[in-house]
Amino acid sequence: MTNPNPFPAAAAARCATPEVLRERGQREVFCGLTSIVWLHRKLQDAFFLVVGSRTCAHLIQSAAGVMIFAEPRFGTAILTDRDLAGLADANDELDRVCVTLLERRPDVRTLFLVGSCPSEVIKLDLAKAAERLNARLFPRVRVVSYSGSGIETTFTQGEDNALRALVPSMVDDDAKQLLVVGCLADVVEDQFRRIFHALGVGPVRFLPARRAAELAGVGRNTFVLAAQPFVGETVRALVARGATLVQAPYPLGAEGTSAWLAAAAAAWSVPGERLGEVVQPLEERARAALSHHHARLAGRSVFFMPDSQLEIPLARFLHRELGMRPLEIGTPYLDRQLVAAELAMLPAEALLSEGQDVERQLDRVRAAQPDLTVCGLGLANPLEAEGLATKWSIELVFSPIQGYDQAGDLAELFARPLARRALLARADGISPGRTIADAVSAPDRRAA
Ligand code: SF4
What we know:
The chain is of the alpha/beta class.
């Protein structure tokens, strides 16, 4: 089947000579369990059972602590030390926990068994456990398993693994459809659904679906449009079922959103005029929202530490739509198939790095003194204490940032740390020898 890719030539040109710094040292990234925090909100009748240790339970509880006030849809089956001889008991115990859980929660339609790092969990075969439980519980509940282990996954790869685990449950369906892959906030999903409808592109299905009964089928007339750059394994599993990947930049910013929609429209042979009628007013509104942030961001340098795999599309957006200067664009894993259209749009002078050797990368940050560093929580505070402005990358995964209506909010997420720094510098007269941390800890600022 022909790939309706409107960007192949440019992408191929940049991909042919990519300069990528590859590092394989110590890394500072949350593990795949973290993605449960947004997945459990999206999949409204699913339950995520982490098979792990007390550390895993603490991570999940603190990352998603808001669930104290509601019946949670995630939990941890804690395995204590066992030798191999105790594995039969562990399997029985896991089955018992699952059955008890499902009796108590008749609303649950998909049960995810999520693996983790501890050695006693690695010894358990969760895929077999899912098979065993399916034989007992299907069709009332679908049980699937995947790994969220920090040894194998970063936090966004956790989502990829969860979605890939659903692919075998998708029925064969050769009817033409657009399948949008990757978690989007409901409000964003609804906006895109309306735009696709106006374009005459459809039927449109989303993976993940909000409810188990809405899980799409897949076949040789399924066109896959990735909404997130970290769903590579899921996309490859869908392509193996006959689907076609529609190459496109990601729907971040006015330009990215238009290009993403145009790629889908091309697969449906939507006339250019119709595409223009639908997207132009929306794009203009998004550009107007972006213009409010242009003055603060244009010309400022930005350094991305590898964290979510969103770094490449975000750097493209900041550079092309807001005039920022990406110095280094770090990504935990460079999935060329999923970012081909994005690579073609990056500034040639930016260093692209894959993986991490955190100390060496911090040295590069200190040497470059970027205006803004986008990094994980663990690195943000020390860098702020050294006088560097930072943006927490995980916030970009939790926030609705895709689409036209969110373009201004996305720019604001980057403008805010710079505005805050400027405000504090004005209020406290920060000198080169006095850092923001000094200023923030001053008693008068704390009182404010
Ligand atoms: Fe559990 Fe491993 Fe994540 Fe730690 S890194 S919380 S042990 S899965």
